Amino acid sequence: MRKASTDSTAPRRPVTLDVVAREAAVSLATASKVLNGKPGVSPQTRERVTEVLQRHGYTKRGGAQAYSPTIEVVFGALDGAWPIELIRGAVQVASESGLGIVVTESGHEHGAAPGWIGPVLQRQPAGVILVASNLAVDAKYQLRSRNIPFVLVDPAGDPADDVPSVGSTNWAGGVHATRHLIELGHRRIGVIAGPESLLATRARIAGFRSAMDEAGLPVDEELVLVRAFDDEASPAAGLHLLSLPQRPTAIFATSDVKALATYEAARALGIGIPQDLSVVGYDDLQFARWAGPPLTTIRQPLYEMAQAAARLIIAFRGDQGRGAGRVELATTLILRSSTQSPS
Predict the structure, then answer these.
(1) Whether 256 contacts 272, CB under 8 Å
(2) In 3D, which of 278, 269, 274, 272 has the Cα closest to residue 244?
(3) What per-residue confidence (pLDDT) applies to 295?
């Protein structure tokens, strides 16, 4: 009896969407919805169909080249210098690969606003970078069904294991900022932080607490203030801390903008920096070195984080949009003139 040929070089017949639908035990219409990123499919069904699509390497007609030569970067808001550093890093890497950058402002606190995915799927970018965002399970499957790779930068929450992300060592940054103030002799150290809904904020505050515990110093909870980003440039938090009967001799602000708002509060109360109050910021944005006095801060490598995210997008293009893992870049204490030993 003659055996059937097992020649692996024989051309494989392309899998049709009808085959995908039968294998996933759904209707052809449901399989089409998943492929085209349409709503009306449960996350469980979308996951099942997506797995079959990816296993067969199924793509829409036009194949892997049917995408816009751009990387889409999604921000919640474009206020201030922080987004500019990320955009610059993404542009530098994208341009090397002949790609452009499309910037989207969602107006949502955590980047990806409800309904954001529809227009993205219509534009069919080469990849999506979501900044300070979460990624809903449904959106993840819709992107994967179209072979659009994605990366979270400075994710708002703790990403799932199969979601690639790029961040920085926020906990270590909080430790280094606080250790610096402790080594100068400060004991009453205040914190002005962003919203606790963000993973970065929680990590930086945890780093502060760890450094205080390491030094055997108690944390006065009255000195730890959490403020939403829409209050970031307001001096209100600084005015509150600096008006206490026992005010702090140093303040760790979890962003450079919050640090400069603390400068404003100190000036309003006639408190000198650094002779009466030491201030440490976070991010090391360009204006930090031009502040009066120049700001001691934790450098978060925003430019390099965006570069890493763009490189992941380009690498994932060759792997059907798949890939996961977390990249963490180091933070660094930048010493300037806003800190000294307490008088």
Answers:
(1) no
(2) 269
(3) 98
**Which amino acid type is present at position 335?**
L
In the CATH scheme, what is the code of domain 69-168+302-329?
3.40.50.2300
Q: Find all residues with CB under 8 Å of 250, minimum gap 6, and list them.
A: 181, 184, 186, 188, 189, 190, 277, 278, 279, 280, 339, 342
Instruction: Please provide the DSSP assignment of 151-175 as one string.
Output: EEES-SS---TTS-EEEE-HHHHHH
Task: Give the integer Cα–Cα distance in Å for 67 and 89.
Answer: 22
Dig out the tokens for 274 from the structure. Answer: 């650094």
Phi, psi of 300 (to 5 degrees): -100, 125
Q: What is the enclosing helix (H) or strand (E) of 176?
A: helix 170-184
Cα–Cα distance, 126 to 146 (Å, whole number): 10
> CA 237 to CA 223: how far, in whole Å?
10
Cα gap 15→31, rounded to integer Å: 13
pLDDT confidence of residue 323: 59
> How far is the C-alpha of 55 from the C-alpha of 203, rounded, in Å?
37
Residues of the chain with pLDDT under 50: 1-12, 62-65, 320-321
- For residue 53, give the 3-state DSSP assignment: helix
Is residue 257 exposed (0-12), middle (13-18) or buried (19+ Cβ within 10 Å)? buried
Q: Are 136 and 114 in contact (CB under 8 A)?
A: no
pLDDT for 113 equals 67
Is the CATH number of domain 170-301 3.40.50.2300? yes
Exposure b/e, 27-48, CB count within 10 A at least 16 = b: eeebbebbbebeeebeeebbbb
Is 120:111 a contact under the CB 8 Å cutoff? no
**What is the pLDDT at residue 230?**
58
* Start-end of CATH 3.40.50.2300 domains in the chain: 69-168+302-329, 170-301
How far is Cα 198 from Cα 194, in angstroms, rounded to an integer?
A: 8
